[in-house]
Design goal:
77% helix; two-stranded antiparallel sheet; 18 helices; single chain
Length: 466
């Protein structure tokens, strides 16, 4: 009983460490959705059209790609936790800048800085969690990244709804010296401060400590997260052997015969790209505008967006319960089938849209079907690709290239996210049903990709990956 109690306490401590690291994912989700509520206010305030709006919304993703690419190298040079602290500071500063823009273009600049910080955090959390989590719980603990993302989306949408309601249902109305949409963007500084405070308390990754020659601290950290009942000397020797055999990691280690990169790196890149090419972030970046286009007013559309986030959270919890039981690959394949059906239904529903006096409306029953199918898509994404991609990226790469490869894969994900986000306003204006049909094709292709190329990682030690 004493051993069980000690084990439970240790597991509880590891859960806290993983949850604290995943707050970077919360920032990812929060920033992804906060701009959803601010889009209309930005358009009205700066008098810009859909093209400029798409650029400002999506430009943060280019910064995220750069942050993810750079974050891998920083994580190997500064350490995982110190890099998290840098990301938190950058996000805090950029949140204040976004709240007080002079022009739409300096708003874009601050969104690039915010994106850079989020990109760093997006690759640091899965790498760190995978390196501190016991193999038996690594899938569920790795799922914390996606849970934090969806919680960030939900909290952001709830905050947006509250601010808009206080402002009389219009995000362009003033609350004190600033408009409501500015308060929405500035509120991002609060979770950034929380992330910084938590990152200051996190222990460094054992694998990074061994890479940097700090063996005494490795023993302390392994005792903290794995307990004294395991053979610490054997664990340290095991990690040391892998690190010494593989040498100091770098981007050059990613080079291989397959178009200049190792095959496993291309698999990670493609996995990341498919997660975005199905169009999930269209729901969270533009859902307010989308639902207004089918006859729902601004305040109610914010509330419907929040309901989508609740469904996202439910799906994520389902994935967390299943990822270490049925495995990563089956969940991905189930999700691909569900997303394909839901997206095809959404595309069909939007094909009935009517344009009268410049206003887009959906007749019954297509309006209700579009709402249900879009949320069904969110559910299947959340219980599969939303969670499993981050788990796999944290554990599928060999030890020697994990941080660098994860950085490249995360950068690819942000670039794919940018491509989808910047193209959606113009594509939707051209042909909304065909746009969703394109996302449907991507969901179908994702099933084929998983069936052919993804290997199961359930229950394997990180030292066995390769």
């Amino acid at each position: 009983m004493i051993f069980n109690r000690a084990g439970q306490e240790r597991l509880g401590h590891v859960v806290f460490i993983a949850a604290a690291a995943a707050v970077g994912g919360f920032l990812f989700g929060y920033d992804s959705a906060v701009v959803n509520g601010a889009v209309v206010g930005i358009q009205n305030h700066f008098r810009v059209g859909p093209v400029e709006t798409g650029v400002v919304v999506a430009i943060a993703l280019l910064g995220s790609a750069a942050g993810a690419w750079t974050g891998g190298r920083l994580a190997d040079q500064l350490g995982r936790t110190r890099s998290m602290q840098v990301a938190a500071l950058l996000f805090m500063i950029s949140s204040i800048g976004q709240m007080l823009p002079f022009t739409v273009w300096d708003l874009g600049f601050w969104r690039v800085i915010a994106g850079f910080a989020i990109g760093m955090a997006s690759m640091l959390a899965p790498a760190y969690i995978a390196e501190v989590a016991p193999p038996a719980y690594r899938g569920r603990l790795g799922s914390f990244q996606q849970l934090a993302i969806v919680l960030g989306i939900a909290v952001s949408q709830l905050v947006n709804y509250v601010i808009a309601s206080i402002a009389g249902g219009n995000v362009s109305n003033h609350l004190g010296p600033l408009q409501a949409w500015q308060w929405m963007l500035g509120a991002c500084a609060i979770p950034a401060l929380l992330y910084l405070l938590l990152a200051l308390k996190l222990p460094e990754s054992p694998r990074y400590l061994i890479m940097s020659g700090r063996t005494r601290q490795v023993r302390e950290v392994l005792t903290e997260i794995e307990g004294e009942d395991v053979d610490l000397d054997e664990r340290i020797a095991e990690i040391q052997h892998v690190v010494r055999a593989e040498g100091v990691p770098g981007m050059k280690d990613l080079r291989g015969p397959a178009l200049g990169l190792l095959p496993i790196v291309w698999i990670g890149i493609t996995l990341s790209a498919f997660q975005q090419f199905v169009g999930i972030n269209v729901i969270f970046y533009y859902s307010t505008v989308l639902w207004q286009s089918v006859g729902i007013n601004q305040s109610e559309s914010l509330l419907i967006s929040f309901s989508s986030s609740i469904i996202n959270i439910i799906g994520t919890l389902i994935a967390m319960a299943l990822v270490d039981k049925i495995g990563r690959k089956p969940l991905l394949m189930i999700g691909s089938v569900g997303m394909t059906i839901a997206l095809a239904t959404t595309a069909w529903a939007f094909s009935a849209a009517r344009v009268t006096g410049g206003r887009v409306t959906l007749p019954d029953p297509q309006g209700l079907i579009a709402l249900v199918s879009a949320n069904t898509f969110v559910l299947f994404f959340a219980l599969s690709w939303g969670v499993v991609v981050w788990v796999l990226l944290g554990e599928m790469f060999p030890n020697r290239i994990r941080a660098a490869a994860l950085g490249v894969a995360a950068a690819a994900q942000w670039l794919a996210n940018w491509l989808i986000s910047v193209s959606f306003p113009a594509l939707a204006e051209w042909n909304l049903p065909l746009t969703y049909a394109g996302y449907t094709v991507m969901a179908l292709l994702s099933f084929i990709f998983v069936a052919r190329w993804i290997r199961e990682t359930k229950g394997r030690k990180l030292e066995e990956m390769g």
